């Protein structure tokens, strides 16, 4: 441990050098070790705010963006975003710094919930968090929305499972069984694994879960799996020193380059162990990528459920994959007609609005480029291949005039679906007044010379496009809009949710593309 400080109540920062004992065979920081550090640091933040001991209730939507290697420095920043009656949400941000180049990158972002546990039979009501900055106010507001999502998660999941059951039994001749991926491990809780009250550290359980899940995933992909995300670590009950923990892991489903592994954790004390009376204390779902020795992604085989339980787990993985995106693009709560549902550290905001059968999405970001240059770059859809991974090919079919063109676009295939294609009309309009935005409007059209093909699923864009507002001579605000019907949402959710931040990632690539082409020249420039 190199350095630890806490600048204000509920804030804790920890720095740690990655040593060989923390790393895997590739020399990269073990995900299990990182989870232990994240939990320990977040728990310190929670206890600093509460003034009493705290226990981990859950840690959800953990995303792993970068790998840390031996010799690099890990910085874990944690902050209590909001205190409820007896629980708190703690935000966790992990950075890695290369000591030679001084380059810093984000490793992981997560949110954890901790419960205050006063000594004895006393009760405690937590004090509100003091909001000192604009970011504090924003995270405080978003924390209540994330809490509502957590509380409503099970109902949303059951609804998706009910819809999935209506589709009938799955059958794929080329699929493989997951029976050989079942792994079981037993751990005895000893004093180093627990806090001063004898309760097992949540981070220790997470590390054991990651280990057994990694073994399960490796049996399917026949390579070394890399942990990319965790849907949720949910702690249903405590375990203490002397308990035996039984970890059972099995592959639930695969999605082209990723695999979901479910882990079920049971606890036994001595008497329960003899009588085989288990306590279910934890469930977790982990997403791994399969890579070869060169770090390239491998395509995974499809799964063929062979039992009723296997079918349940297969469909459950699809439902969780959908929820990861639905929680960001669907207005789950009927009393919110317009929700700000995601705001990143990079000042990218995402809203949704649902009315009847229509779902509208808005993405807003600030870009350091003059508005007229952003307009030229975004109105030329042949350039979109440089930043939008959902565009495979794009060509101009017909130029109606300088401001209106018809394009033919294809998108790469998603798991379980054919590639998609679009015939779209892109219209661009310049502002009449300085206060008005540049406009790029997109909608699908029918062209007799380009009929639907059996090779593609012909898709439709109802209404989409960009509004570009000038902020200064060197910066602008770009707003992206898209409107879809509810029938498209399940496909949209199921196939773009490989990362829960898919929309954000595309927006970041768009902004990077615009700022790298700040000197772009076009005949349309005003």
TrEMBL record:
Pathway: Lipid metabolism; fatty acid metabolism. It catalyses: butanoyl-CoA + H2O = butanoate + CoA + H(+). It is found in: Cytoplasm. Residues 8-120, 179-294 form the HotDog ACOT-type domain. Keywords: Cytoplasm, Fatty acid metabolism, Hydrolase, Lipid metabolism, Repeat, Serine esterase. One of its GO terms (molecular function) is lipid binding. SUPFAM superfamilies: Bet v1-like (SSF55961), Thioesterase/thiol ester dehydrase-isomerase (SSF54637). It comes from the Eukaryota. Gene3D superfamilies: 3.30.530.20, Hotdog Thioesterase. One of its GO terms (cellular component) is cytosol. This is Acyl-CoA thioesterase 12. It comes from Amazona collaria (yellow-billed parrot).
């Amino acid at each position: 441990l190199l350095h630890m400080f806490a600048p204000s109540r509920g804030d804790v920062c920890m720095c740690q050098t990655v040593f060989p004992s923390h790393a895997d065979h590739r020399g990269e920081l073990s995900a299990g070790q990182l989870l232990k550090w994240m939990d320990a640091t977040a728990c310190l933040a929670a206890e600093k705010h509460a003034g009493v001991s705290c226990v981990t209730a859950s840690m959800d939507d953990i995303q792993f963006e970068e790998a840390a290697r031996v010799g690099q420095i890990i910085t874990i920043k944690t902050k209590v975003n909001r205190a409820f009656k007896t629980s708190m949400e703690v935000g966790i941000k992990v950075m890695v710094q290369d000591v030679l180049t001084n380059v810093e990158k984000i490793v992981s972002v997560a949110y954890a919930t901790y419960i205050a546990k006063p000594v004895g039979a006393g009760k405690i009501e937590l004090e509100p968090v003091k909001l000192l900055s604009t970011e504090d106010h924003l995270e405080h507001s978003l924390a209540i929305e994330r809490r509502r999502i957590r509380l409503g998660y099970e109902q949303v999941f059951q609804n998706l499972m009910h819809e999935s059951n209506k589709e009938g039994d799955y059958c794929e001749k080329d699929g493989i069984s997951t029976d050989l991926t079942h792994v079981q491990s037993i751990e005895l809780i000893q004093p180093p694994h627990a806090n001063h009250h004898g309760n097992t550290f949540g981070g220790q359980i997470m590390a054991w879960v990651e280990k057994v899940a990694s073994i399960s995933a490796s049996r399917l992909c026949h390579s070394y799996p890399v942990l990319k995300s965790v849907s949720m670590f949910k702690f249903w009950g405590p375990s203490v020193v002397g308990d035996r923990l039984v970890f059972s892991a099995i592959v639930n489903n695969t999605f082209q380059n990723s695999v979901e592994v479910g882990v079920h954790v049971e606890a036994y004390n001595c008497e329960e162990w003899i009588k085989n009376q288990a306590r279910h204390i934890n469930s977790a779902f982990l997403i791994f990528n399969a890579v070869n020795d060169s770090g390239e992604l491998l395509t995974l085989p499809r799964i063929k459920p062979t039992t009723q339980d296997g079918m349940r787990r297969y469909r459950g993985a699809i439902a969780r994959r959908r929820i990861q995106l639905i929680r960001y693009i669907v207005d789950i709560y009927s009393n919110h007609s317009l929700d700000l549902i995601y705001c990143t550290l990079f000042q990218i905001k995402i809203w949704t609005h649902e009315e009847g059968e229509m779902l509208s999405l808005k993405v807003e970001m600030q870009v350091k480029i003059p508005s007229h240059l952003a307009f030229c770059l975004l109105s030329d859809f042949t350039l979109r291949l440089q930043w939008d991974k959902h565009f495979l090919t794009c060509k101009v079919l017909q130029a109606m005039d300088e401001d209106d063109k018809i394009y033919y676009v294809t998108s790469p295939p998603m798991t379980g679906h054919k590639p998609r294609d679009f015939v779209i009309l892109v219209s661009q309009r310049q502002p009449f007044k300085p206060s008005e935005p540049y406009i790029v409007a997109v909608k699908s059209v029918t062209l007799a010379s380009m009929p639907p093909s059996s090779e593609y699923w012909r898709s439709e864009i109802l209404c989409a496009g960009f509004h570009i507002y000038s902020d200064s001579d060197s910066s602008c605000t770009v707003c992206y809009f898209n409107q879809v019907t509810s029938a498209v949402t399940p496909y949209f959710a199921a196939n773009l949710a490989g990362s829960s931040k898919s929309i954000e990632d595309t927006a970041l690539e768009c902004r990077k593309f615009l700022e790298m082409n700040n000197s772009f020249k076009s005949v349309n420039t005003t």
